[in-house]
């Protein structure tokens, strides 16, 4: 399967996918064909370039409307003919054009146990709430924010001494493993989305 991965930051989830493909190019069942971002100057793009991958950047501020940005992102992504698009720390909400094109084959990873703590600060929100257990969720993207059908989740204990950074790092250790496992299974086995249920044979 052909993957396009979208990033906005350090790209450690991207790196986990790159390593999985590199360690088992035939067995993993997917290859990353391009990496896209909504901004320049991030480690995620450096990781892609180090791996010899093509990259593209589409910044919201370069377009007159959000819809034009969304269309540009969809077209840049479509140019690589992906089977699956993976949001790995991509911090923009895509719109109708992107979802019309890639809905049902667009996966996101979120650092909380959805439906708890959706949005851009899931780790901070769980900590502030006093949650004792949080974790990460890999799900298909729908037209809501972090509301699409859940594929897999992993739990992570919250420690009394945790601050946001420490908790997020501990979550990301687990999140990277979950994302690699899920993307590999989707790519190798195929899948069906039945309402809110995701079936991977
Ligand atoms: C991940 O925890 C992701 O779930 C969240 O931001 C983090 C991105 O980390 N949206 P990285 O860029 O993959 O290192």
UniProtKB/TrEMBL annotation:
Organism: Streptomyces formicae
Active site: 110 (proton donor)
InterPro entries: Formyl_transf_N, Formyl_transf_N_sf, GART, GART_AS
Chain ranges of the Formyl transferase N-terminal domain: 2-183
Site (Raises pKa of active site His): 146
Protein name: Phosphoribosylglycinamide formyltransferase
Function per UniProt: Catalyzes the transfer of a formyl group from 10-formyltetrahydrofolate to 5-phospho-ribosyl-glycinamide (GAR), producing 5-phospho-ribosyl-N-formylglycinamide (FGAR) and tetrahydrofolate.
Entry's Gene Ontology molecular function annotations: phosphoribosylglycinamide formyltransferase activity
Highest taxon of the lineage: Bacteria
Keywords in alphabetical order: Purine biosynthesis, Transferase
Pfam families: Formyl_trans_N
Protein's pathway: Purine metabolism; IMP biosynthesis via de novo pathway; N(2)-formyl-N(1)-(5-phospho-D-ribosyl)glycinamide from N(1)-(5-phospho-D-ribosyl)glycinamide (10-formyl THF route): step 1/1
Transferase among keywords: yes
Residues engaged in binding N(1)-(5-phospho-beta-D-ribosyl)glycinamide: 11-13
Record-stated family: Belongs to the GART family.
Binding site for (6R)-10-formyltetrahydrofolate: 66, 91-94, 108
HAMAP family tied to this protein: PurN
EC code: 2.1.2.2
Catalytic activity: N(1)-(5-phospho-beta-D-ribosyl)glycinamide + (6R)-10-formyltetrahydrofolate = N(2)-formyl-N(1)-(5-phospho-beta-D-ribosyl)glycinamide + (6S)-5,6,7,8-tetrahydrofolate + H(+)
């Amino acid at each position: 399967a052909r993957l396009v991965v979208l990033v906005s930051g350090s790209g450690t989830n991207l790196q986990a996918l790159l390593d999985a493909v590199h360690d088992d190019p035939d067995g993993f069942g997917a290859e990353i064909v391009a990496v896209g971002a909504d901004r320049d100057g991030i480690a995620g793009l450096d990781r892609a370039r180090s791996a010899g991958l093509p990259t593209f950047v589409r910044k919201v501020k370069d377009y007159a409307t959000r819809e034009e940005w969304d269309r540009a992102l969809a077209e840049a992504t479509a140019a690589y003919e992906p089977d699956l698009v993976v949001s790995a720390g991509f911090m923009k909400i895509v719109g109708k054009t992107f979802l019309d094109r890639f809905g049902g084959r667009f996966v996101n990873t979120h650092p909380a146990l959805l439906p708890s703590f959706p949005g851009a600060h899931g780790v901070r929100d769980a900590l502030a709430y006093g949650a004792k257990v949080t974790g990460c969720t890999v799900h298909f993207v729908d037209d809501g924010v972090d509301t699409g059908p859940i594929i897999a989740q992993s739990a992570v204990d919250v420690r009394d001494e945790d601050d946001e950074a420490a908790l997020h790092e501990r979550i990301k250790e687990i999140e990277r493993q979950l994302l690699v496992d899920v993307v590999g299974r989707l790519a190798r086995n195929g899948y069906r989305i039945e309402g809110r249920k995701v079936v991977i044979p």
